[in-house]
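Now read the record:
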Amino acid sequence: MARFSESERVEVWECRHGGESNRSIGRQLGRTGASIRAFVESTGGVRPHRRCRAQRHMTLLEREEISRGVAAGESLRTVAARLGRAPSTVRREVVRNGGSGRYRAHRADRVAWRQARRPKPSKLVDHLELRAVVEEKLADWWSPQQIARWLRRTYPGNQEMYVSHETIYLSLFIQGRGALRRELAQSLRTGRAYRRPKTKRDPTGKGRIVAPVMISQRPAEVEDRAVPGHWEGDLLLGKRQTAIGTLVERHTRYMMLFALPDGHNAAAVRDALAATVQRLPAQLWRSLTWDQGKEMANTPSSVSIPGSRSTSVTPRVPGNAVRTRTPTGCYASTSPKAPTCRSSPNTTSTRPPTR
């Protein structure tokens, strides 16, 4: 992984906090998305605290004055008086950095900045009993919040057995702490070994739907399914990147399938969808609800499809969408690349149902 300058590190974390993807951040910095991801994962997705120099510590300008005074042959007491420092402080500074003959301000400042790091060991490193309990609960699929609350109830008054959920997360994400085994991160609900920002990502980037219409904005006639012509769409994915598109009419539950021999990218799905809906009468094609998959990337909310009225690309909401994924095994038999299986006449019929 290439080194990042301090300004680049700050920009990476600021952009990531703003919801930008690794690829977008890489384009801004002239780097690859993989290098940005490797940099973020090296810290477990946790932004390190920005180091700052304490006011009581000696600055680079003060060390420059010491270096000039020593080179001019001035006494350390005279230099200390000019800086407003104690003579013993200036003397220790000079002695620990080579003495009067070898003292250099930049080298002394760099050494002091490096030696000032005092990483505090994690509580889970020093307390073996606490670490064993936390690892046991993580292995039983307990969340860090549950573990932290359980410890306070189980060991009342024993603060040595208390640990915050954030400490557990950081011990899993930042392996430099050496507290918990990395494989225990798979026991988390997310299954990730690094932290992701909570900020919602920018929906206008690559692979995003342009100006999506939310599912709450659909007309009332779509919700109660009283009027035919409103459809739900989705993809059925198979092996070797094969896919089949599904269209389900909300009123009659009539289903149409369309093949995707050219893949399931955005252009292929749109062309196959347009060819399928052209077979429908105009009064039976009013709107389409689709989830926010990449097969609808760069597709605006009102799509100009021949033979259609309007198309709504909306997120999938539990309880609202028609069940289009249930008989997947039988639907897969309509694909020329998939193995055949027995299916009922109702699932493969392309003739509209009689009313």
Remarks:
- Residues 6-42 form one domain.
- The chain has 15 helices and five strands.
- The longest strand covers residues 230-237.
- The chain has four domains: 6-42, 60-115, 123-187, 215-348.
